[in-house]
Each structure stands twice: as structure tokens, then as C-alpha cells.
Specification:
With about 375 residues, the protein is an alpha+beta fold. It is built from 13 helices and 18 strands.
Length: about 375
């Protein structure tokens, strides 16, 4: 789960992390009031969407009067902001963050994330702040320093000193860096984050280290421990199909292709998507129904797939272990009978209760094509979609 910049900064503020003062605004009047309340000569008006690259897309503007704040608020609120992370359709701006300006001297990059290889929290540090970190990694990888934290010791003073050295900070700024890294680690672990990105982290002309931007992602599996974070969820920023899938604990991600996929197991789902691409089409979604899905959960998954107008065909690929093939078959049949079947459907079943599953589908009187293996299934659904 992701949250907005202003919400992320509120979380950081609770942990003593230095961030600029600011106020969220949902209307032009609220934006103007926020600027008046800040009372600073320079104000930054920021569009709040769950995507990076807002500045390049015109979503972040530095202004010097309340009247200019009004103009920017009128321009941004309700507009569609298209960045390199939103895709061509963009995202609608429904809220703004009006923040005091910062006299920036230097910009850096600092993030914390879960390193899957080492099973530790890793920090990424770079002197190339305010830039796309993926581009920095590609063009000048020597500017990026990464280190991980041993969970047995947690954050230590030498980690802060490492960050200070990487950013060439000395004296008071080095001490601020050490304190900052400690606080960021505390926030990351306390709130079960999966990502915490500060870009840019700036040194002001007054020699203060401040987090001018903040991006946060949280581990969905730990949200039950953080009702305060769940309360920050903005459903307007999420795909409706993904929201519906989350109600049934389905692992669903909407994509731009034409073939809907229902698979059990993340690895098998990725392989299914790859082989669809191999034969010339693209998947419309990633959908892992999991190992213990019920008939009702399978039916819900099928309905979510068929609700996507881009879907021109559906491939069900199940290798039954814990998940039994007959349960999948019953769920698919129940869903088809309820919502109808307007596109080709290919089903490949293998594993536990496979014969019973095939029998259920065969006696359903539905227009379903059976497949012998994954390769056969992919070729059949691609052929059906291409006509």
C-alpha cells in the first residue's frame, strides 16, 4: 500500500525526522489558506498522486504569492497529470500539498528498502539527488552506495557515518545525517514499510538537512498491525479491479494486455505471462489465486477478469497441489454461469483431483477449451484471440 507525500511526511514528523512545514489542500480556497498560514515568502504547490516524476510533468510549482498559489491550485485540481510512472492515461489530481519553500544548497538521494537477497533492510545513498535513481544507476553507478543493516544489531552509529562520508558531509551536517538515518530506520521498522524514499534530501543554505520529498510503501501483510496507516489509503489512486481483488485476498495486478490469466502460484503466473508473450499476445493481468483458494474466491477472481473490457480471452492455468483442480473447476463454472462468457476460455488443469476437475468442466455444457499442458494452452488462447 502506498500513501501520498504529505501523509508520508506526517509519519516521518512523528519520528522526529526534519521535514518542511506544509498543509494538504482539497480546494483552491484551502490552498490559499495554507499559503497564508505558512506565511513564508516562497511556497511550493505540489500535486498529490501516487507516482514519481511530478515535477517534470508540471505537478510541482514554486510560487511567491498567495495569488499564484490560487492560480496553480486552479490549474492542478481536477487535471490529469501524466508522468513516466503513471502511463499515458495519467492520474487525476484530487489533492495538493502546499509547503514552505526551502533554500536549497545541495540535493541528495536516500532510501531504505527490503533487500530480498540478504533478507535485510538496505539503504541506498547517492549524491545525485532530485533525479531518477534508475537513470543514475544506469549512467553513473559509481554515484550510488548501498549497505544493509544487520537485524541482530539494528542501526548503529557507523551507518550514519557511512552516509555522511558518501555525501561528503562534515561537522554538524555529519551529526545530522547520523541522527536522520537512525530515525528513518526506526520509522521503517516500526511501520512495516517496504520502501522509504527521500528524493531529494537537501542541505539548506542554513546548513540543515531536510527531507524535501518522501515516498512510502507498506507491506500489505502487516497492515493489520497499523490501522493508522490503513486509514491513509486513497482508493481513488488504485485500480478498481485491484481494490476488489484485495477484498478476497487475491494477488492481482492490472496490466495492459488482452489475455486474462488465472493461475495459482506467483512463479507459475509469471511463466504463464511469459509464454503468452512468446506466442505474440500480452497478459491483461497478473492473478495468483493462492494455494488455499475457495470456490467463492475463484469465482470472484473470474468476475474481476471478465470485468476488464480489454480482455479478449481468458487462460486458466492451475497446477493442483494444495489447491485442488475440482475446486478451481467449480469456481470457474459458477462464475461463468453467473456473469456469462463473452470471450474464449482455455483451461489447463494438472495435479490434485485433475480428472474430477476436467469432468466438472466437461459436464458443465460451457464453451470451454481444454489444454494438455501450458504450451498447448498458450497457443490455443492466443489463436482464439487472434481469430
Amino acid at each position: 500500500m502506498n500513501i501520498h507525500e504529505y501523509q508520508a511526511k506526517a509519519v516521518l514528523r512523528d519520528f522526529g525526522v526534519p521535514v518542511p512545514r506544509g498543509h494538504a489542500a482539497f480546494s483552491v480556497e484551502q490552498a490559499a489558506k495554507a499559503a497564508n498560514d505558512l506565511g513564508t515568502p516562497v511556497v511550493v504547490v505540489k500535486a498529490q498522486i501516487h507516482a514519481g516524476g511530478r515535477g517534470k510533468a508540471g505537478g510541482v510549482k514554486v510560487v511567491k504569492s498567495v495569488e499564484d498559489v490560487r492560480k496553480e491550485a486552479q490549474r492542478l485540481l481536477g487535471s490529469i497529470l501524466v508522468t513516466h510512472q503513471t502511463g499515458p492515461h495519467g492520474k487525476q489530481v484530487n489533492r495538493l500539498y502546499v509547503e514552505e519553500g526551502s533554500a536549497i544548497d545541495r540535493e541528495f538521494y536516500l532510501s531504505a528498502l527490503v533487500d530480498r537477497e540478504s533478507s535485510r533492510i538496505a539503504f541506498v545513498v547517492s549524491t545525485a539527488g532530485g533525479m531518477d535513481i534508475e537513470q543514475v544507476a544506469h549512467d553513473t553507478p559509481e554515484k550510488i552506495i548501498t549497505f544493509s543493516i544487520d537485524p541482530a544489531t539494528g542501526i548503529m552509529p557507523h551507518h550514519g557515518r557511512l552516509v555522511a562520508r558518501a555525501l561528503s558531509l562534515t561537522g554538524s551536517l555529519a551529526k545530522q545525517a547520523e541522527a536522520l538515518v537512525t530515525k528513518l530506520y526506526a520509522a521503517f521498522t516500526a511501520k512495516d514499510m517496504s520502501l522509504l524514499e527521500i528524493n531529494p534530501l537537501v542541505v539548506t543554505k542554513a546548513s540543515e538537512l531536510i527531507c524535501v520529498d518522501a515516498k512510502m510503501g507498506f507491506d500489505d501483510n502487516a497492515l493489520y498491525r497499523h490501522p493508522d496507516i490503513v486509514a491513509l489509503r486513497d482508493l481513488t489512486e488504485e485500480d478498481e479491479k485491484e481494490i476488489e481483488a484485495s477484498k478476497y485476498d487475491l494477488n492481482y495486478v492490472a496490466l495492459d494486455g488482452t489475455i486474462g490469466c488465472m493461475v495459482n502460484g506467483a512463479g507459475l503466473a509469471m511463466a504463464t505471462m511469459d509464454i503468452i508473450k512468446l506466442y505474440g499476445e500480452s497478459p491483461a493481468n497478473f492473478l495468483d489465486v493462492g494455494g488455499g483458494a475457495s470456490k467463492e474466491k475463484v469465482a470472484a477472481a473470474f468476475k474481476i477478469i471478465t470485468a476488464d473490457p480489454k480482455v479478449k480471452g481468458i487462460l486458466v492455468n492451475i497446477f493442483g497441489g494444495i489447491m485442488k483442480c475440482d475446486v478451481i473447476a467449480e469456481g470457474v463454472v459458477a462464475a461463468v454461469k453467473e456473469v456469462g462468457l463473452r470471450v474464449p476460455l482455455v483451461v489447463r488443469l494438472e495435479g490434485t483431483n485433475v480428472e474430477l476437475g476436467k469432468e466438472i468442466i466437461a459436464h458443465s455444457n460451457l464453451n470451454v477449451t481444454s489444454a494438455d499442458d501450458l504450451d498447448d494452452a498458450a497457443q490455443k488462447i492466443v489463436k482464439a484471440v487472434k481469430g
